[in-house]
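Example (one chain per record):
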Amino acid sequence: MSGNLIEIDGGMMEGGGQILRNALAFSALLKKPIRIYNIRAGRSTPGLRPQHLSGVTLVRDITNGRLIGAEVGSTEITFYPGDITGGKYTADPGTAGSIMLLFQVSFPCVVFADKPTDFCFRGGTNAEMAPQIDETLMIFKPIVERFGVRFSCDIKKRGYYPKGGGEAIFKIDPCHSTLQPIEILDPGNIVGIEGRSFVAGVLPIKVAHGMADAACRYLRSSFPGISMKVERVKEPAHLAVGNGSGIVLMAKTGTGCLIGGSA
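Predicted structure:
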């Protein structure tokens, strides 16, 4: 630490963008200025990429803060947060960069904003090395709502690598005070599995069927007799940009817990 400035080594552990996103969110919430160096030192192309830069500048705007050194390729930034302010914000890296990573860095901040927040995010809705938008809505959303957080998401268009071009609108209501404590101590037994298998672009619907069928065969061997319902979708051409595929599965338990994953 240098004076009141907290210094964070962005090359710790895997040396990816997660340290950057977590540090920015905590800095905004705690109103503590930070200096992050060795940003993404563990990646083949270190420093800020367009998607990271969009997230950094978004948090700056949300907090009316001051940002030093933020540009594509930067391996060091200094951030002085101000007051978190709800409202309408847009972030667009101009690439297939993950929309959900923009959500990840900004959502914790506006949970305690002074008023509701509307985000318009553009980029990749289903990108590699990032949470899928379906996983966030099917699994993360119902869990975080148990803490008293309320948000909605309208997927205007899906975007896939390398074109991007997706767009999603998030509306977040602030908690105003504190989060509600919850207990998730007993996962319980799995009573049902649901999911979504999807393709877009030139990929045929049979690919979605193949992924869903293979997943169900594998899961039935471990959970015989469990109800399984996997939706198979071919994204309409006017609602998707690029070619892509994926599958998201969610297991429900007798105690109300949700367990999921995506590929």
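Caption: DSSP finds five helices and 13 strands in the chain.
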